[in-house]
């Protein structure tokens, strides 16, 4: 490890920039959806795929990327992921039609899946000392979370005068600079695992197939109807692939996802909460971005500024809510945060056409504040359930649950709201609040009241992955 403080700080900034790019492309695209639709002549379902192709690839390959980083080294996979992300961004910017844009978004998601876990692993490698690591991770989290606030604003500033392709072109100079700096500054890779630790390829393929078929069924069902032949076939593929995935994972010596972890109610509850929170949030971002521009007639910049109150509290409350979890445990912050999130969406449904006003901003801020309080509790609940020696993989599973929930949210809520503009202002929020209410009555009541300093090992847990080790995201 390099002991030069300036060099380590510069390397920390490079790793944090990778996290920033991943989150930026979650939010910046939403503001451009209306212009993408008019520019390429895309349908609502195709716009859903523009968002979900990225989220789906990110979710499906997140856990596999941690295992791959153990083989190649975190530095090597981080740089490779950044390069793929940059090339895919160029393909997005030049896409002549929806099919190419969606395919390029898949490639972007694959690059992001390599960058996200390795960026945190690099931070842990740079700052192994217990007294320095929390501050380093705090900077990493702060830089990444700022993308949630800057995304809608940058998207609006670029899309208005330059068109939607500019949001993807923006990545090119940023990624190029990070690659050049990363090759000079990031620590060298550590040796990979020995023989006999083969990757879980069948699990990776079956998991990806199951998630893709599920999202396809939800997106197409909103337009063609859930009783149509393609949707019925996709539902059958989803069921078969999930069943096969469960069977394969039980037989693998080193599974991609050990399903026995979910026998612990506090672990399954924390991950259900994380998934449903992102289901509501990314579904809302998708629907509200289109509503504000298509129905309210706002410019991309105005729409982006209207969405900032939803994203800003998550970045601003991260440190404060983390301290709250340390003081009182994960159960109360997670429950109260999700309740606030649901209450904000439910109240928003009563505003009808006044979302782009002070009352709408206040309710979006309430929902965003709920997220900011809930996230540390949800991740802490998952990590406490498996014990401190499994904290890394527990955080990785929790982050994957959030990405899966986001992909399903855009598919489900986007398809539901496509049947009429009025549903964007009422049915959407009612549905989101209902999900949160059901969640609070279910798995979250089984959270541990306080994260124990040491927890029991979960049976069947696989060896800890260096690439996913670290603090929760």
Structure description:
With 473 residues, the protein is mostly helical. It folds into 3 domains: 1-189, Growth Hormone, Chain: A; 201-253; 260-473, MFS general substrate transporter like domains (Growth Hormone, Chain: A, Up-down Bundle). Helices cover 77% and strands 0% of the residues. It has 17 helices and no strands. The protein has helices at 5-40, 44-72, 74-93, 98-126, 133-162, 165-169, 171-185, 201-224, 229-251, 265-295, 300-316, 318-328, 331-348, 358-386, 391-417, 422-425, 427-441. Helix 1 packs antiparallel against helix 7 (171-185). The two termini are 24 Å apart. Residues 418-427 and 451-473 have low confidence and may be disordered.
